[in-house]
Amino acid sequence: MNDMRLTEKVVTETAKITARGVQVHYGTNHALKDVDVDILDKTVTAFIGPSGCGKSTFLRCLNRMNDTVASARVTGRIEMDGQDIYDPRVDPVQLRAKVGMVFQKPNPFPKSIYDNVAYGPKIHGLARGKAELDEIVETSLKKAALWNEVKDRLAAPGTGLSGGQQQRLCIARAVATSPEVLLMDEPCSALDPIATAQVEELIDELRAQFSVVIVTHSMQQAARVSQRTAFFHLGHLVEYGETGHIFTNPTDPRTEAYITGRIG
Amino acid sequence: MSLGLLLLLLLALGALGFLAGRQRALAAVRGDARDLHSLPGYYGQTVALFATVPALLLCLVWLVVQPAIVERSISALILPEDITAGSSLVLVMSDVRRIAEGMDALAVAGAASEGEIAALVGQPDALKERLAQTGVALAAPILPHIAEAAQVWRAQTALGGQIMAAAVLALAVAGFLLALWRIAPEFRARNVVERFVRVLLVAASSVAILTTIGIIFSLVFESWHFFQLYPARDFFLSLTWAPKFGGGSDLGLWPLLWGTLYVSFIALLVAVPIGLMAAIYLSEYASPAVRAVAKPAIEVLAGIPSIVYGLFALMTVGPFLRDWFAQPLGLGDSSSSVMTAGVVMGIMLIPYVSSLSDDIINAVPQSLRDGSYGLGATQSETIRQVVFPAALPGIVGAILMAASRAIGETMIVVLGAGAAAKLDLNPFEAMTTVTVKIVSQLTGDTEFASPETLVAFALGLTLFVFTLGLNILALYIVRKYREQYE
Ligand SMILES: Nc1ncnc2c1ncn2[C@@H]1O[C@H](COP(=O)(O)OP(=O)(O)OP(=O)(O)O)[C@@H](O)[C@H]1O
Ligand SMILES: [Mg+2]
């Protein structure tokens, strides 16, 4: 708790990622229209909006996961630390190591729990030896609030865990590569309230080191964990600002309608 | 009444039943089909089914049972003195059957009236001559008593046929009327048809299963015969395969089994890496356009008859391997070799491995790939470390299936590896396999009851057990793989 208060003060207003005029087309479907956003460093940013409005699409622009979708075409400019991430000189694989992602549906690899977490560090050569790797695995699992549950069965398959445990394993896996930004697409949609609370607590702790972007359908969750909120509607970014402000004093009538439950 | 006419009548009755059933159902509700429990067509179907199916079954059973009964009653007529020295009841009975069939042929061809045939029974020599004209040649002179038995045979068969026709038609009409009588608006015709369909499907699958059991049974039975004549110990433990016509053969399994395993091993060595890499390319790298062309193109390989591969082995691969590898390396100068057969068989198996593996790799959920890319892995890292391990059990299953095909293959081996049974390590040496020897033992001139022939069944059984084991292993692994994602 002390930590939390400390980090609150550390929050700076420097932008980690700036997006300008981002448009995404899936074939002829214009999914994202002219989005401008600054994602702040060491801040939790929530993306909210009705289903199909382009939240996931925008999230996937930030680590260039849309490159793997054949029909997707991204235009506009997205910079991370001042570097255009769609510059041909930028290696998307390298970028994804810095911008980690947690998916809506838990997707542990069919490997042991240990190997799931060690996957990223091994690929990127983050550990110099077995001992160091063990340590990364342990701290990542601890950060994901999973260590106590699995420390005695690290060799058991990750697919054998419960849905909530699997999702925390995926979070540990993403954390283990020490990303600078962590993207989470509805990370709690498959979780029960207890696991959700654990993940929310975790997000709050992660804010000390990363900037976190979370897509959520739960207003309460957005209000609880985020400092900034962006509201998307039909491919447009309608409103973006401090979470408290968005929820108490929205400027756009569409935002107000959505958060009060009139559109969704 | 001939069988064809009977079947035609049954079909006509079925069609009539359909129309009548439909009509009656509609009439029962004064044309308003909504008052019926089922659609009008279902009522028609129940009548058609009740009219035809039981009658057809009766017909089928009758056709199987009647000859057995006739045969038994005729056997009773044969006297001990009818069986000449060196003959047996079975041989005499087959004569009776042939004479009867010959008489039928005479009658059908119009060459002799029933009266003339009856007269011929008294004159065995004339009968023999007339039969020879219709193509029924008999070695020994016909005994009068045997000719009489043949006449009785004919009479009984004809009578049986008539009774059958009457019984079948009676059953059909009874079924027709019963079904028609049962039709009422609340009659659940739909459910009745449903049950009929289920029984039909069960029957079809039982045929498949029973046939398999029958095959296994005959294999086991003949193998058992073989082991009565030849010690099982020698078969399973001897290292020599040297069948001799005059008996005293060495029938050791090992040279053949070794050849089978060696050729299959080389075939898999060729097929597995190439097939797997093709599968990975097709499922992970190829664009949809390339895939649409390349996948069927590879699968065409599977459609080539294995004899064509055999010719390819004989004419092209064999001489090539001999001239460029075996001779320069001093490993022999035979163009038939384990290597030739193995390589060509490997080419044949590529599509099996690639197309099964391709399906399995495609079945790995996209979310696993996304997870890996999201952590900053490249495509080949993702394939090696996530996709491939996830698909591995399924791929192993595919490989085992390919292996059991390799073990059963014959044509390529005959033409590619030769027919010499040898235990040798040199892959450029001609060797042979179990399947090739099964063919050659059965097509030889030796008497059927000799161990030299019967060994084919023991070999077949060995092979069967072997591939069965492989298939069970494959099924087990594939099933385990499925559980991982469920
Ligand atoms: N891979 C794809 N191919 C084609 N169209 C896509 C693809 N992914 C998304 N879309 C389209 O883009 C639009 C935005 O989808 P997106 O997944 O970003 O919505 P979302 O806001 O995340 O919705 P949800 O809350 O339901 O997850 C939708 O119209 C969707 O049909
Ligand atoms: Mg989404």
**Largest beta sheet of chain A, briefly?**
6 strands, mixed
Strand order of the largest sheet of chain B: 1-2
CATH superfamily of the domain at 14-108 and 178-259 in chain A: P-loop containing nucleotide triphosphate hydrolases
- The CATH architecture of the domain at 14-108 and 178-259 in chain A comes to 3-Layer(aba) Sandwich
Poorly predicted regions of chain A: 1-12
Structural class determined from secondary elements of chain B: mainly alpha
What's the helical proportion of residues of chain A? 25-40%
Name given to the CATH architecture of the largest domain in chain B: Orthogonal Bundle
**Assembly type:** heterodimer
The first-level CATH class name of the domain at 14-108 and 178-259 in chain A: Alpha Beta
**Total strand count of chain B, please?**
2
* Percentage beta strand of chain A: 25-35%
Q: Name the shape of chain A in a single word.
A: globular
What fraction strand of chain B?
under 5%
| CATH fold node name of the largest domain in chain B | MetI-like fold
> How would the global form of chain B be characterised?
flat
Radius of gyration of chain B (CA) equals 32 Å
